[in-house]
Amino acid sequence: MATSTSGYSGELVDRFGRGWNRFWYQPSDPYVLGALRMMTGLLALYFVLSFTPDLIRLFGDGGLLPNSVSEHWYMEANSNGLNPTRLSFLSHLHTTNELYAGHAIAAAVLVLMTVGLFSRVTTVLGLYVVLSYIHRGPQLATQVEAVLAILMFYLCFGPTGKAMSIDRWLAVRRARKNPAALAQLNRKYFSATIVTRLIQIHLALGCLMMGLSQLRGVMVINPTTGLEWQDPWGAGMAVWWMIARPESRWLNMTWLRNWPLLVNAWTHAIIFFELAFPVLIWNKLARPLMLLSALLIWGSLALISGIAPFCAAMLIGSLAFVSPEALRRGTGGATPQPMPAMA
Question: Which of 305, 176, 216 shows the shortest CA–CA distance to 253?
């Protein structure tokens, strides 16, 4: 009996260890990370450029959000005295020319990150740029900033410039005269797997937290009774609440007032997706269905909620669940020859 138990324990530990190592450390093609870098860079560039019309009005001396206001906001929110506003490069620019010059340099950094030039450096600098805008105006934060910052943070640790980048194109040009060096460019990387897994886990947990928080309900102001707790998601009315807000929606779908069952089904489909995604996305058979559902759910929410950048960030994060082979087939990229792995 003791021998049987010992053998079972040993096999259990061995299988768990091999599965753990395969999940985290099996080298993988960095092609997906290259696509994530490009898409995340484009979203970050949009985020930064969206400040352009109001840059001076918001951050200039005498603007609506002077440094003192943002610093006071952080002092009120953080009892530990942490004040990220002071780390933002925007906090050290005051005149119109200084702000526009810094803004242009920030956009240029994100362009370099997107096209994959000096990727190791520009990805880190791109994260600093995005965090600078977030922490300079924390009162302006929406849902997209958290997801965007998470994606950019993880990409700093991966070989994002090894695929779909100018860095890759330059490396191929340099190696054309040396077939052995050219073959080395097709290596797989441990770090690509680790970064991809971190993004996958964070995205899955984010979907789960959204689903659970929506089931809690919300506090609303009733003109008659005052504050009261309502559950629009559980009642199937959350989608209608978004459709009925003309100031934020991209598409007028108020005609759905005559189709309450469809509105209810749509609302519950969103909840089901957010709760099912963290579970089913890990199953290879269910994964294509969940990715298609992600496209439909986040795409439809972008149209009716007006938070298209957030929906785009969630779709970009979902790209981490696409295999490099499938993505290469979808984009027409050549499949590299297997080579020894690198960290």
Answer: 305
